[in-house]
Structures are given as structure tokens and as C-alpha cells.
Write a structure and sequence with these properties.
Blueprint lengths: L8 E3 L2 E3 L3 E3 L8 H10 L4 E2 L16 E3 L5 E3 L11 H11 L3 E5 L4 H14 L3 E6 L9 H4 L2 H12 L6 E5 L5 H10 L4 E4 L3 E3 L2 E2 L4 E2 L6 E4 L4 H15 L3 E4 L5 H10 L3 E4 L1 H5 L3 H18 L16
Helix pairs in contact: 1-2, 2-3, 3-5, 5-6, 6-7, 7-8, 8-10
């Protein structure tokens, strides 16, 4: 008898053919990028973080590859503004793949403005970027305070019907902030965003990035992300999208064991010459992982590291 394995999941009420999606900021800015993400084999696509008005972003250099396999970036939330959302959503609908619109803002009204546009355009969900560590007035400057997290999520979730996902970044109150996001109406949490970092050239004796600070991503932050996912899942049993340094199926499986229901992949798409092969390899590895544990559904292993 052939036992069928399924990687299908339901996340915040959305059915995904597999648990993988791109991390916001990796492609997702135009319809051509949405099509490319679809061709990679993701279960859902995530747009770049979109603000009410277009943003130019920081001057180069804005991204740096590190010897340890990590990346530091300070793009500065460059994006074409909310007017592009309709085009992105229409392309995803044409391809029959769920799309999550990442939303950025400096205050509750700006988050709500973009979230409304996303819902009107037909997005499946929105992801509130409460965690970008390198853009003044945005992201982590808001999300580091649990009260701000509550207020933004509450304001947005009260005016739209599609699911709200709160993406949070590393800070000493992230477990509390996660609870506040859920209390305010978030249907899922994204954990974690990049980690604030600096890289200094020891020859010029100056920081390399024009913005000085950037967001560290890739393998160096993976154990940190595992810890956060584990702690938040233990506390709230929330639906979690894990992100941070996933390069192969074992990294993805570790997130799932800690409590993640879905996985975002970012740096691996940049550092790998064949992203499609990477996604296929991760999905194949997860199927074999299910067979190893003699289960037929990925959901049976979500949070498995917490079992006695």
C-alpha cells in the first residue's frame, strides 16, 4: 500500500499547497517577480513591504555578503507605493497562488491605508512589517514596544476582513509583543525579521553600508529564530511563519518542530544560483522527514519539540 504524504497546510484560514513562501524583500516588487516566485514552487508569495507613497530607499552600498554565509542589507524599504498592489495581486490570482501583501508605515493610519488597498485589490492576507531594523521611523522602531504592536494590529484588524499577520523582529520583549499582536487580532505571527547589525571595514575603519546599520540574515541568525519560535509557540500555541536562515530541509524541519506552521525563505534565494532547485530540495527533504517519523501530514510535526 502506498502512503501519501501531504505538505498542504492551512495558515490563517488560507490553504497552501506547501508551507514555503519567500520572505518579504526578496523579489515581490512587480508582476514579473511574482511569476518568478511562483515558478520556484512556493506555496504562497509575499510582496515587498509596501508603504502608502513610493520610497527610494538608501544609497549604495546596501547589501553585503559575509564570510559566514550571512547577508547584511539596508535597502531602506524601497518600494513603488500602494498603487502597485492591484497589479501584484492580479498576477498572483492569474497564477492561482495565494499572495500576502507586506505592509509598512510610520503610524497606525499609514498601516491601515495600505492594508485597505490590499484587501480591496483581493490579497489573501496582509503581513504587518513591525520589524525592519534599518529604516528610521518604520519596522522595529514601532514593533519593539508591545503597546505599539497592539495598537497597530488592533487598528488594522478592525477595518479589514482578510487575515492579519504580524511580523516581529528580535528584541527583549518579543514574546510579550507576540501576545499583544494575537490579543489585538493577528491570525498568525512572522518570526523573525533580520537582526540589526553593522559591518566595519578594518582597512578603511568605516562601516561598509551607507546606512551604517543593516539587517543581518541567513544562517547566522537561524538558531536565534529557532529560540524565538520555540518560546512564542510554548507560550501561545500560535500559528507561526518561521524565517531566518533556512537553507535546507533540516533548517525548515527545525522551525516546524519548534512550532512554525509555514516557512519564509530569503537569503538562500540570493546566495543560491538555482532557487528552484533549492525549493524542490527542501520540499523533498520534508516529505522524507515525514516518512522517517511515520506520519502523513506536516501538521502532525508542528510543535513536536514541545511534546513529552
Amino acid at each position: 500500500m502506498v502512503i501519501l504524504m501531504t505538505l498542504n497546510i492551512e495558515l490563517a484560514g488560507i490553504i497552501l499547497k506547501n508551507p514555503l513562501m519567500n520572505a518579504s524583500g526578496i523579489l515581490g516588487q512587480n508582476k514579473e517577480a511574482i511569476k518568478r516566485l511562483y515558478e520556484y514552487g512556493f506555496g504562497a508569495v509575499v510582496s515587498k513591504t509596501i508603504t502608502p507613497m513610493p520610497r527610494i530607499g538608501n544609497k549604495p552600498p546596501i547589501i553585503l555578503s559575509l564570510p559566514n554565509g550571512g547577508l547584511i542589507n539596508a535597502v531602506g524599504l524601497e518600494n513603488p507605493g500602494k498603487g502597485t498592489i492591484k497589479e501584484l495581486v492580479e498576477e498572483a490570482k492569474e497564477l492561482n497562488i495565494p499572495i500576502i501583501v507586506s505592509v509598512g508605515g510610520t503610524n497606525e493610519d499609514e498601516f491601515s491605508e495600505v492594508a485597505k488597498e490590499a484587501e480591496i485589490s483581493g490579497a489573501n492576507a496582509i503581513e504587518l512589517n513591525l520589524s525592519c531594523p534599518h529604516t528610521k521611523g518604520y519596522g522595529l522602531e514601532i514593533g519593539a514596544d508591545p503597546r505599539n504592536v497592539f495598537n497597530v494590529v488592533k487598528n488594522v484588524s478592525s477595518i479589514i476582513k482578510i487575515p492579519v499577520i504580524a511580523k516581529l523582529g528580535l528584541n527583549d520583549k518579543i514574546v510579550e509583543a507576540s501576545g499583544k499582536a494575537l490579543e489585538a487580532g493577528a491570525k498568525a505571527l512572522g518570526l523573525i525579521n533580520t537582526v540589526k547589525a553593522i559591518y566595519i571595514d578594518v582597512y578603511t575603519l568605516k562601516p561598509v553600508l551607507s546606512n551604517i546599520h543593516g539587517g543581518l540574515s541567513g544562517p547566522p541568525i537561524h538558531p536565534i529564530a529557532v529560540r524565538v519560535i520555540y518560546d512564542v509557540y510554548r507560550e501561545y500555541r500560535a500559528e507561526i511563519i518561521g524565517s531566518g536562515g533556512v537553507k535546507d530541509w533540516k533548517d525548515a524541519a527545525e522551525f516546524i518542530s519548534a512550532g512554525a506552521k509555514a516557512i519564509q525563505i530569503g537569503s538562500a534565494l540570493i546566495s543560491n544560483d538555482d532557487p528552484k532547485h533549492t525549493i524542490k530540495s527542501i520540499l523533498g527533504g520534508l516529505e522524507n522527514w515525514l516518512r522517517f517519523h511515520n506520519v502523513t501530514s506536516l501538521l502532525e510535526l508542528v510543535g513536536s519539540a514541545h511534546r513529552d
